[in-house]
Amino acid sequence: MARLRDIIEARPRILFVGINPSLRSEQVGHHFAGPGNPFWRLLYASRLVPVELKHEEDTRLPQFGLALTNLCSRATRSAAELTADEMNRGARMLPAKIRRANPQVVAFVGVSIYRRLFGAAASAGAGLKPETIAAARVFVLPNPSGLNASFPGFKDKLVWFEALREFVRSEFPEAPSN
């Protein structure tokens, strides 16, 4: 099985950064492919994309000014299986990847990845953050996994995807609206 490729074109409105792919995503070759993962439904329900996409259509993200990458490329059943070395290596490489992509907003898909990059002193929870990476604003989304006990339901996650949409529309009004 091949590792998942990043879906990045120059200057996206939003670059989503996940922790790492699931085994299912690696198996089928598409991001957020787990049957219980609502990432694609959240993008549509929040109006970040104007059409319902399925994981098989992940390469369409650039059509909507969106991009996607992961901190670590190795697929695992759980992010807890990643080694500290893998996480540290990903954290060192990510800023250069963000500079090359030059997004307006970096949206971390999960609070834990944000805390990993900015340390224990980083502001807790989801939402807009004070940090920037290579001039991109930082926004944290809840991990969409159904195993996320802090944001257990679809609506608990949707609130933050909608907040991201509203932030991008208000901060970057020249961006095309969906």
Distance between the termini: 35 Å
CATH superfamily: Uracil-DNA glycosylase-like domain
- What's the number of structural domains? 1
Number-wise, the strands total 5
Protein structure class: alpha/beta
Supply the CATH class: Alpha Beta
Largest beta-sheet characterization: 5 strands, mixed
Q: Which descriptor suits the 3D outline? A: globular
Low-confidence stretches: none
Radius of gyration: 15 Å
Helix content: 25-40%
Q: How does CATH name the architecture?
A: 3-Layer(aba) Sandwich
List keywords for this structure.
single chain; 5 helices; alpha/beta; Uracil-DNA Glycosylase, subunit E; 5 strands; 178 residues
Describe the structure.
The chain has 178 residues and is of the alpha/beta class. It has one domain: 3-Layer(aba) Sandwich (Uracil-DNA Glycosylase, subunit E). The chain has 5 helices and 5 strands. The protein has helices at 23-28, 39-45, 84-101, 111-118, 154-171, and strands at residues 14-18, 66-70, 105-109, 127-133, 136-141. The chain has a 5-stranded mixed beta sheet with strand order 2-1-3-5-4. It is globular. It starts with 13 loop residues before the first strand and ends in a 7-residue tail after the last helix.
